[in-house]
Amino acid sequence: xxxxxxxxxxxxxxxxxxxxxxxxxxxxxxxxxxxxxxxxxxxxxxxxxxxxxxxxxxxxxxxxxxxxxxxxxxxxxxxxxxxxxxxxxxxxxxxxxxxxxxxxxxxxxxxxxxxxxxxxxxxxxxxxxxxxxxxxxxxxxxxxxxxxxxxxxxxxxxxxxxxxxxxxxxxxxxxx
Length: 176
Prior knowledge:
The relative contact order is 0.15. This protein starts with a helix and ends in a 21-residue tail after the last strand. The protein contains 3 helices and 9 strands. The protein is of the alpha+beta class. 28% of the residues lie in helices and 30% in strands. A 9-stranded antiparallel beta sheet has the order 4-3-2-1-9-8-7-6-5, with helices on one face. It comes from Aurantiacibacter luteus.
């Protein structure tokens, strides 16, 4: 009789212990998946930046080049969001504040200018589906070689996680 009393008391405790830790397992699984996705995205971006830029495309021929573009350089990662429909941009500036504004297209039809890119004007063009930050203000036309060089920003795919701001210390690191 005593054995049955002990089994009766222990059975509910065993059931509670078996199903009480599922939240921790799900959280650990989500963290592992997020870390793997981030590493895959980082590797894909690093591989894309090693190829050379090709010929520039006129902005009219580029179609909708809206999206988030990323570049990994010696001084870290830079990302910019371009909306070609309303000619706006935003990026996280050197003071970790989001910088927004409207860009202007140049008369040659190949470039657009952001007046305040980390404190100075910068020109971009579209080449092979990527955004290229030109090293200088140079007019592009059909007479010159049309091969553009500069920092190449690769477009994030729909599944890529892109931060809208830098995380605060101690905050969760998942994008919004």
